[in-house]
Amino acid sequence: MAAKSKNRKQSNFQQLNRPRNAKKTLLRILPYIGKEKYLFITVLVMIAINSVLSITASYLLKPIIDDCILPNVGADNPNWKPLIHTLSTLAIVYLFSVISSYGQSAIMMVVASKAANRLRADLFNKLQDLPLSYFDGHTNGEIMSRFINDADNVEIGIEQTATSLISAFITFVGTVYMMIRLNYILFLLTAVFIVLTAIISWKMTTKSRVLFRRQQQALGVVNAYVEEMVTGIRVVKAFNYEEHVKREFAGKSGAYRDAAKAANFLGMSQMPTMNQLIEICYALTTVIGGFFVLGSEGIGGTIFTVGSLSVFLNYTRQIRMPIRNVTNQFVTMMSALAGAERIFNVMDQEPEVDNGTITLVQTESGPAWNMPDGTQSPLRGEISLKHVSFSYEPGKQVIRDMNLTIRPGEKVAFVGSTGAGKSTVMNLINRFYDVQEGTVTYDGIDIKEITKDSLRRSMGVVLQDTHLFTGTIMENIRYGRLEASDSECIEAAKSANAFEFIDSLPQGFNTVITADGSDLSQGQRQLLNISRAMLARRPVLVLDEATSSIDTRTEQMVDAGMNNLMAGRTVLVIAHRLSTVRNADRIAVIEGGQIIELGSHRELLALKGHYYQLYTGQHALD
Amino acid sequence: MAKKRHSVFSYIGEYKPLFILAPFLTVLESVAELILPFLMGKIVDNGIDKNDTGYMITMGIVMVVIALAGMAIGILGAKVSSTAAQGFGYNLRRAMFSQIQTFSFADIDQFSTPSLVTRCTLDVRQIQEVTMQIVRMLVRAPALMFVSLGICLNLHAGLSIVYWVAIPILLAIIVFIMHITRRFFSIMQKKFDALNASVRENMIAIRVVKTFVRAAFEKKKFKDANDDLTNTTISASLRIALLHPCSTVIFNLATIALYWFGGHLVGDSQMQEGSLLTYISYLNNILMSVMMFNMVLTRLSRARACIDRCTEIISHESSIQQPDAPVICEKSQGHIVFDHVDFAYPRTGRGLVLKDICIDILPGEFIAMVGKTGVGKSTFANLIPRFYDPTNGAIYIDDIDLRHRDIEELRREIGIVPQQNLLFTGSVRENLMWGNESATEDELLDALRDAQAYDFVMAMPQGLDTQIVQGGTNVSGGQRQRLCIARAMLKKPKILILDDSTSALDSNTEAKIRDLFYEKYSHITTLLIAQRISSVQSADRIIVLDQGRISAVGTHQELLETSPVYKAIYDSQQEGGGR
Lengths: 622, 579
Fold this sequence. Notes:
The structure holds two protein chains of two kinds.
Chain A: H1 22-34, H2 37-69, H3 81-129, H4 132-137, H5 140-182, H6 184-231, H7 233-238, H8 242-295, H9 306-318, H10 320-347, E1 359-363, E2 366-370, E3 376-378, E4 383-391, E5 397-406, E6 411-415, H11 422-429, E7 437-442, E8 445-446, H12 452-457, E9 459-462, E10 471-472, H13 473-478, H14 486-495, H15 499-504, E11 512-513, H16 522-536, E12 540-544, H17 552-565, E13 570-574, H18 578-581, E14 586-591, E15 594-599, H19 601-607, H20 610-619
Parallel strand pairs in A: 6-13, 6-14, 9-12, 12-13
Antiparallel strand pairs in A: 1-2, 2-3, 4-5, 4-7, 7-8, 10-11, 14-15
Helix pairs in contact in A: 1-10, 2-3, 2-5, 3-5, 3-10, 5-6, 5-9, 5-10, 6-8, 6-10, 8-9, 8-10, 14-16, 19-20
Chain B: H1 16-48, H2 53-102, H3 105-111, H4 113-155, H5 161-204, H6 206-211, H7 215-240, H8 243-267, H9 273-315, E1 336-343, E2 354-361, E3 366-371, H10 377-383, E4 392-397, E5 400-401, H11 407-413, E6 414-417, E7 426-427, H12 428-433, H13 441-450, H14 454-459, E8 467-468, H15 477-489, E9 495-499, H16 507-518, E10 525-529, H17 533-536, E11 541-546, E12 549-554, H18 556-562, H19 564-573
């Protein structure tokens, strides 16, 4: 019995059309159990011991009445010694049986928990290596359900099915052996029914696999919807959309209910169907067995008596148990396999392409690129785009033949209307996405030749969407450089101008931030983001709308702090606010995926082109 | 907050008859199985012994028919059970989701999103499965037990003392083990939530993780949460696994006791050996039914935490309550009055975010708000649609205290473009329809034009039918803001709140949108929160918020002369200014 919640199933749409391979999945789960090889072998031994002990116990029970009790009936001097002796033996057998059965189930739980633990860890680790495009294409709810539901199903599956299957097998073989010994012709009848049961069960299995998959898909839709709507509940309320959302939810939830109903109906029908098939076999055996008793002198030399018939019939009923156990485990097994398959499916995704060989190293004279041949060249911070084109979706070019060289130590700002491709440039430079045409070079090196870790470690990137983690403010800032001391973190907060507000909180730097920092204002979160990047002290800094929610006065102070810290380093800034960009060395005006103007604030104003319009457009409203 | 406890089981609702029917079908099915050996006995006694082949064949056919009937009843039982269980789950899930929809922002903050998601999905499934098991075993197990006990009493009342000793001990053990495991299960659920939250956070912040090259750190963090969960699971499992061996020990001891005392009774000729055999074989029946009970109770104890967690949701009264008799607003104009409003976020332990706010915003006025980061601008905006209630003071719209107004009606009048603009999975069209479910194509296009979103939407290959992914991450920040503005416009609100929601727009686009509020939408009361002076300077009045208080109110020109805070913001945005 799992201590784990018995929950199952989740969805993924792409997998539905693919033929599933239960055997392959099973083989892939095995290594997860196999890690606990010795424990698993111990379990097997215990199951065997347990079976032997229960046979011994029933063997001991048989003679109790005949040999230990009946001789004392009416005796003047009853002798209870044999009874005491047998009962003591029995107690010892029981004791060992209880120990082995507890040991077996306890160990199996440990094995299953550990296997699930490893499975989740592998899955999580794999996710860290997947490219951003994977996350673009999958909702968080969808991915999370693999951790919540699927891993759990696998755990329950391992825990329950393995032991039941083994003991069912032992019982089955034993019973069949006894039946053949009693009357092999009657056994042929039983065999026909066993085969029939197996075929029907196989048919039902195949059908219910499809139904359970449908159920999982529907559940996935429900979970993803709950996730999205609960996350967006503020908008739901702002738009009075509660009723609509409830309706929509009822629809999705209803679809799940119907799918689950169909799947569970078939799943639960399997047991009575198989049970009663064996009962029919029992009825027929009674009649045919009766004819054997009446008509024959015995088969194979042994005489088939009424007694033999009743024993044989007992076995017929007994053989249901292993079959029933296997069927019982069926649903669990199927959802475990489906869950495992969905987990492996994520693990089989292509990881981020990373063929680079050049790494970033710290030398005495600062950061440097370490070439594969062992030579080193200092990091200067020159970034160059050469004939770069890129599109997220085929046929929709976002960047067209872009050329730009950012000189070491230069501060370059990107302005342009929304959707012009500014953020895309940043995504290409740190290789969230790979360019489709042209090259991006970093100190003259094609960035594809630099390992991704090194490339990203060389750049501090502050994104517009602020993401903080559960933990204290101090821990969140330290995310920028894990080995930084408290005073360094505080220093970074000061240069990002975040110190003032942090200090005013009752717990200061130890204030715990929860749920993506929702109790801080958007601007405060951006300040923390910037502190984090300041602390990281990367040779190149990329600010993608990093100050959009910060008031302009604070922004100026942030800027001053940053200039101090980033003196002589390359800085790339994306902003809409022209007050943010005008101090840059050069400003690149991007429209339609191309740089249409490039120059300093003054030069661009003198040009009286697009930038001039933007700038005066702002001022024309004075 | 008034607490009313609702039972999750009240959501069985219309499936009650099925829940009653299901156990009887289970009993019928087992009856069919019990009859067959009895008939077999008859075949042996009347058929084989008397050499009556006709009787044998007739009874054989009867047995087959009964088996077939058993099969039919079993299949019917499966149908009834699955319908009832899934129907109940559906009702419960729906009730919980609906309840969450009534929660205030403060309630959501309290429960946290991941925990709400787990409760609606995982916990409900668990409850649903347990309920089904209880129903199937509830009648069958006691029925079996009482029949067996009755027969035993009939055979020899004295010997039954073994049962009367064994059963209470067994029950005590079960209760004790349940008691010690229950705590572990609630801890386990918490660890599960923590794991969940850690994955969720990682997914949301994956870009940050990648830019800081923190994969290894994240893996370690996850490993800790994961191992923590596994360890708790194992401790809980090891305890709950004690149930089985403990009950087996009791029954084994009872078996030995029966042989010992029974043996003596037989020896003294007070009992026949056949009766002792029957006694012992019924021990099996009693064992089975107590075990079945045991199993159901185990599941119940596991589900206990889930039931508690779901009950918590169903019974949680929103901290923002619809008034019993809402005052109907006769003529809505969009007249907003803040009367000495203080506000502190509940449960954060932090001081007042807003202090003594008094402002009278006139119908149709275009009012702007500036102020430093974290000064309380968004909080101010969140009070108007009653997302939170003020800690002190009151807010009136059209002279009615917000707490006396119908919440839905109130929010219908207010269009809000939140700072964290959020779109939902679905087409652009579906997202816009949030503003007005019955909007015509023309209205949609108009709203897009007003929000300066028409051009880029039309440039997309599928236009209005372009699919937006969760959170709207497949359109740029500025596009998202414009779609959110269009969505709010479609609502045709009396009051429009733009909470720093034009920050990602270039100034030309922003100016075009702003112009609308002077011309086409001059009748709408507009509250614009912004950073750029250029965005706010044309407003009728500008509120300068400083340290949670209104430090000045006036037009651009007035403020330049009277408000040093405003002047400083202005200077910082002028060319070469500020430094």
